[in-house]
Amino acid sequence: MLDVKFIKENEKLVKTSIKNRNLKIDIDKVLSMDAERRKILQEAESLKNRKNIASDEIAKMLKDKTDASSKIAEMKDVSNRIKELDKRLNEVEEGLNKMLLMIPNVPHSSVPVGPDASHNKIARSWGEIPKFDFKPRTHVEIVELLDIIDLPRASKITGSNFILYKGQGARLERALINFMLDLHTKKHGYTEIFPPFLVNRDSMTGTGQLPKLEEDMYRLKDDDLFLIPTAEVPVTNIFRDEILDEEDLPIYYTAYTACFRREAGSYGKDTKGLIRVHQFDKVELVKFVKPETSFDELEALLKNAEQVLQLLKLPYRVVLLSTGDISFAASKCYDIELWAPGMNTHLEVSSCSNFTDFQARRANIKYRPKDSKRAEYIHTLNGSGVALARLVVAILETYQQKDGSVKVPDALVPYLDGQKLIERKS
Q: What SUPFAM superfamilies does its record include (predicted)?
């Protein structure tokens, strides 16, 4: 959330930010509502002060047995006016807050300006695109041949775009999750968290999914709870409405969760196989840091996610997102895209973002600097470290063999009890 004072002092910057994000939000109306709010507060405060003074005067007049009827009648009118102002103030503040919740974060100056993904910039690439002496199969063909994922039965159990892992497929999924958690906790300094998969409306609002993205979320109608779209939501909200001490920062958390997304509006788009599913596993990285370090922390976060792919020896590229493609809450974001040879395309497996104080304002997360009594808003970051099922897609298609079997990446062999090859069981 952007502070109204910030919007007022940086009106041109905020308007440019909204234009560059290819959005339409009436900032003039926001400022007008804030001006009305301040005007109401000023009048109400003046009348309440006047009423307090008059109350003392009336008490004295009654004590002196002086006629106070006109003064009492006057204050009755003042009381009625105060009630009117308080009612209008509630209306204005509610409307203003709704508008503020719909204003996105301001992109960092290093973010490319452009209306859509075509203006993203490739920051770097890693690894070599594999070459085959046969036509590489798609992951859909591979999982059917090896009998490790059953998409038709998943559809029968739940519906389209859900996954049923089985046998070696289930073991591969579990091995990847454990491999990533071990890497981030043992080598990158993150503390493991295992949070709830259901969160309340305040949590979803705090990280920016609500109100803008509610149609993309799975909601439990009777309880007004939401299945999490990412571990970012419960993990970031661990410190909602809290003040941390500076000496406790930075805080690094990692968490495995299942993630749930309705993908509203994506019907018919990349829906084959494991590319766009409604439930998927992910290992998330979340940081709580001091403002002056947050962009350096973003680069470090990105490298933590990249190392997962480097250890698995999977070629990828890092993409700096443009203003038209960056997420609602992010100030700067990198995507990591894996190469999938069977599909002959890149697949996003991670988004690493710095939200600056945007989420912290919504969730009211602060820290108290040393030698200061005034608490300040913290900066939050998060990134996928990394997401499945697209990671599985890239592994199956990259490590496939001519006979249909799949080699196990060296880094995963210990997590599969020494197994080096995934092949169909007779």
A: Class II aaRS and biotin synthetases, tRNA-binding arm
